[in-house]
Amino acid sequence: MANTTGIKQKELFGHPVGLYVLFFTEMWERFSYYGMRAILVLYLVAQAQGENPGLGWSNGEALALYGWYTMLVYVASIPGGWIADKFLGQKKSVLYGGILLVAGHTILAIEEMWAFYSGLGLIIAGVGMLKPNISTMVGGLYKQGDIRRDKGFTIFYIGINVGAFLSSLIVGYVGEVHGWHYGFGLAGIGMALGLIQYLIGQKHLKYVGNFTGDSENEEEKAAMKRPLTKIEKDRVVVLFISFLLVIVFWGSFEQAGGLMNIYAKENTNRMLMGWEVPATWFQSLNAMFIIFLGTSVAAFWARRKLKGKISTSLFKMIVGLIIMGTGFFFMSAASAQFESTGSSAMYWLVLAYLFHTVGELCISPVALSYITKLAPLKYASLMMGVYFAMTGFGNKLAGLLGEASESLGEFAIFTGIAIFCVSFGALVMVFRNKLEKLTHGAEDNEREMLEQEPYELADPEIN
């Protein structure tokens, strides 16, 4: 990452102010993305005639498009990261990505098929430019070995989910009740707010996200020109192996926007005290749990590290996959209940989303931080882009699994996902020690700083 050693940054609540600028930028970007995601599949399968007409597609057709779209959104992060590393820097790439996103969501508000596909294309390009680069900028706010980095990414991740929580409630409600295209337009307004906030906060991002080709730091210039060292190559290998966990995780987790979304709509008894809960509101559960549990999960891992227990990034990611996979057993129970009674209770979905959330908190913000620790400087944004591309492949896998449910049934899909995730996580755990040796002590400085200066963790949730 960029060398911020010796640079005095203005701080707020123990972290650089720039973190909160990026927090709110990402919050509004996720508001727009998850808001649109919450209504996309439901819009596609809604009847073409009626008070709130959709496109009248079959569930299989809708889930197929959902899989392709969510895959391409994240695969676009590879060219987005490459452009930042080679030409623009992360800061400008985030700006241009935000502009593309505003345009894409605004066009989706037009009730024409050309606008629908054009809007999706612009959103794909916009997320590709913004997503990997804003995450890389968060890592750049902290010097190497700074023990606040993981906590910083957790705070940033809470911002992501504040946006996701609000969007599922607001955009989901507007889309379902007042019109799908009003929902799409509202998502665009959210992204515009994020872009304005990002521009206003530039003074707090002066030393991060700049194009390294223009750097005056001799160490950074040398790192950009020389070939990768043996240590750097080993660390890249570990990153690529950890990305297998990412694919499996998101291939399972992203049933939320597809199969679990449709399941909530069609198979779940959503009556609560005489009122029917909108299906899209279940999308907000994950984000709500992250907001309430985010710092607690981070504090749990910090306490483990202080006690000398295993708390490496790879260990957290493996545990996260296993916990998330366990959550699908609740969906198996829901499917069994539906098959026997013709309806399933809402609490199965709530429990599934709770386990999925705890698993996500163990793997997703940790993986973002892990990449900024291990990725070579010259490929910092590109490696972040590859991570999000793996997320995209996971999304495509989720779509394929959702399609398979039409022939195999929900019970088989949910149970199969649960068993595979737990088994795959256990398998990687067997090889964890060998893989961590290839990091060449990338996280050792954090352990030493915790042992020497634990008082720096002023967060009462951690101490």
From TrEMBL:
Residues 18-436 form the Major facilitator superfamily (MFS) profile domain. It is found in: Cell membrane; Membrane. InterPro entries: Dipep/tripep_permease, MFS_dom, MFS_trans_sf, MFS_Transporters, POT_fam, PTR2_symporter_CS. The keyword Protein transport applies. Keywords: Cell membrane, Membrane, Peptide transport, Protein transport, Transmembrane, Transmembrane helix, Transport. It is a multi-pass membrane protein. The chain crosses the membrane at residues 31-50, 62-82, 94-110, 116-134, 155-174, 180-200, 236-253, 281-302, 314-334, 346-368, 380-399, 411-431. The keyword Membrane applies. Belongs to the major facilitator superfamily. Proton-dependent oligopeptide transporter (POT/PTR) (TC 2.A.17) family. This is Peptide MFS transporter. It comes from Tamlana crocina.
